[in-house]
Amino acid sequence: MLIPACLAVGALIGFTGGVLGIGGGLLAIPLLGLVLGMEQQAAQGTALIMVAPAVLLTVRKYNQHDKVDLRAAGAGAAGAMVFTWLGAQVALGIEPVLLRRVYAGFVLCIAMFYFHQSSRKRRKAVRPGGLRRPEDYHSAWFALIGMIAGMTGGIFGVGGSVLVIPILTTMFRLSQTSAQALALTMMIPSTFVALSTYAAHGQADWLIGIPLALGSVLMVPYGVRLAYALPEPRLKLIFACMLLVIMVLLLVKT
Hints:
Mean pLDDT: 82
Transmembrane segments: 7-36, 42-60, 72-92, 98-115, 141-167, 179-199, 206-228, 234-252
Distance between the termini: 27 Å
Structural class: mainly alpha
Subcellular location: Cell membrane; Membrane
Oligomer: single chain
Low-confidence stretches: none
Number of strands: 0
Helix content: over 70%
Shape: globular
Main location: membrane
Number of domains: 1
InterPro entries: TM_pro_TauE-like, TSUP/Inactive_protease-like
Keywords: Cell membrane, Membrane, Transmembrane, Transmembrane helix
C-alpha cells in the first residue's frame, strides 16, 4: 500500500509545486518526517528524488508560456552548483532536530515576507510599465543570486528557488510567474548536485522517492496552468499559506 500512497501524495505535491513554482520539495520534506518518521537529512535527500524530474517538467511548462532567459538562468546555475555542494556538506554534519528547527525558521521568514507582499499588492497594484525582465540586468547579478540559492538549497535539500523568487520580484521587479520560472531553471543543475551528495551519504530512499516522483510528474502541468490563471496577489497569498502549513508540520515533528 505504500507505493500507491506515495503516488497519490506525489501527485498532490506535484500539483502544488506547479502552482507555486517550488518543485514540491518544501511540502514533501515535512510529510516524510511526520508520516514515515525520517530524519531531516533522509527526508531532504528522498524529497530530492521527487524534485529533480518535477523541476525539469515544471520549467518546460513555464517556458511554453513565457520563454525563460537562458543567459540569466545559466549565470545563476553556475553560481549555484559549487555552493550547493558546500551547503549539503554542512547539512549532513548538523544534528537532525536542530536542522529541522532551522528549516522551520527559514520557512516562517519566507511566509511572512509573502504575506506582506500579497497585502501590499492588494492595496496598490503594480503598473504594467513597472515590471522588468531578466535581460535588463547584468549576468553577474544572477550568478550572485545563484550562490545564495545554492547554499540554501544545499543545506535544506530544497528551498533555493523559494529564496530566489522574492529577490527577483522585489529587487529585480520581475513578475511572480517569470521569477518562479527563472528561479527553478537556475536551480536545475544544483538540484542534481544536491541529490548526488545526499545519496552518496545514504540519505535518500529510492523506493519511496521514485513513486513520489512519478505521481508528481503527472500533475505538474495542471499546476503550472493554474499558476498562469491566478491573479499575482492571490498566488503570493497561496504561497504564504502553504509555507505556514509546512512550518507547522515541521514543528509538530520536532
